[in-house]
Amino acid sequence: MTALSIVIPVFNERDNIAPLVHEVVRHLRGRVQFEIVCVDDRSDDDTREVLAALRAEVPELRAFAHAARCGQSAAIRSGVRHALAPWIATLDGDGQNDPADIPKLLDARDAAEAEVKLFAGWRVSRQDSGSKRWASRWANRIRQWLLRDNTPDTGCGIKLFERAAFLDLPYFDHMHRYLPALMQRAGWKTVSVPVSHRARGAGQSKYTNVGRALVGVRDLLGVSWLIQRSHVVVTDEIPAPRPVEQGR
């Protein structure tokens, strides 16, 4: 039985995806029954062809492609829906997340209580430009002030979560950046786990600081609205009355 699915959303990462897939195999083969689920979000380069060739080399790999570009959150959700395992680990397709941290997340899960459904990577030493680190620092402060999710880093691509809990969350574009708040809204607990971070090996980032900020404001307000309008509902089954014993 597949115990873990590694979901990797990919867009124009022809030079990064093969080394990343082989790294995952190196760190997980022999430790856990796993699969790798890559979802190509309609790349402009030959990422899809690279994935097809990889399938002949890596038996654990399954690959899917969107018919139209839908964004990173949609690619993650597509991968989770196709995944066969009850637990999901995610990695960004650019190779900046280190697959060697996945066992660390698994160890954190095994030591945690059952109510923890999300283990979020926390990049304690980011290998991004100064402007990116500055923008992310301020975005995290604003998010924590507004959502109070007690999470130092929600933009980290490496995460481990329960598949059923994820699929029960409301879906919207860019939701992957707010998973801790959404999980907590659903009544689950979340834990942040320090992980490493690497410089991009090839290609370029798909986001700009300005573009991310403009979308982020709208998303923050939307998630805040969801939290304010939500209730954690706990239900108990009503037992049938005990049968009355005859003759008493």
TrEMBL record:
tRNA processing as UniProt keyword: no
Keyword tRNA processing on entry: no
GO molecular function: undecaprenyl-phosphate 4-deoxy-4-formamido-L-arabinose transferase activity
GO biological process, one term: lipopolysaccharide biosynthetic process
Keywords: Cell membrane, Glycosyltransferase, Lipopolysaccharide biosynthesis, Membrane, Transferase, Transmembrane, Transmembrane helix
Domain Glycosyltransferase 2-like: 5-166
Top-level division of the source organism's lineage: Bacteria
Gene Ontology CC entries for this record: plasma membrane
UniProt-recorded name of the protein: Glycosyltransferase family 2 protein
